[in-house]
Specification:
It is a single chain. The protein has 138 residues and is α+β, with helices and mostly antiparallel strands. It has a single domain, classed as Jelly Rolls (Sandwich). It contains three helices and eight strands, in the order ββαββααββββ. A hairpin with a 2-residue loop joins β5 and β6. The protein is elongated.
């Protein structure tokens, strides 16, 4: 069984950002030589997350980030504010979006719907971030 562990490095901008990492992950899958299997992606940060959503319209990330900010605004009445109120808000945002995704691999490529992409959220940038990628044949 072919199992590979890789890392995608991401440098994020200030505040809440959304970065399309589909191309980077797709390159890792192609380099792996795996024709059929699964790609597991894990974000090892408490203020970052990953999701699958539309990558066709460049305005989609802007709308998603704006509404996540609307749902969880930065405020000073959080109970856990060891760092800053924006850090507390980032923990909640990351929990709502999630820290992992699983994508099928067929014919040596990621299997997505027509407009789907892998989108990495950073809710506490700027930072050096990473996504752990496990590619498993089978």
């Amino acid at each position: 069984m072919n199992v590979q562990h890789q890392t995608v490095a991401i440098e994020t901008g200030l505040g809440d950002t959304l970065t399309d990492i589909t191309g980077q992950v797709r390159d890792l899958v192609k380099q792996s030589g795996v024709q059929s299997g699964v790609c597991i992606l894990v974000v090892p940060h408490t203020t970052a997350a990953i999701t699958i959503n539309s990558g066709l319209d460049p305005s989609t990330p802007q709308d998603i980030v704006a509404d996540v900010r609307r749902l969880v605004p930065t405020r000073t009445d959080f109970h856990h504010i060891v760092d800053t109120p924006s850090d507390a808000a980032a923990h909640i945002k990351a929990s709502l979006v999630g820290a992992s995704e699983i994508v099928l691999i067929e014919d040596g490529d990621l299997v997505f719907g027509h407009s789907q992409s892998l989108l990495f959220f950073d809710f506490d940038g700027p930072r050096q971030r990473r996504v752990m990628v496990k590619i498993i044949e089978g």
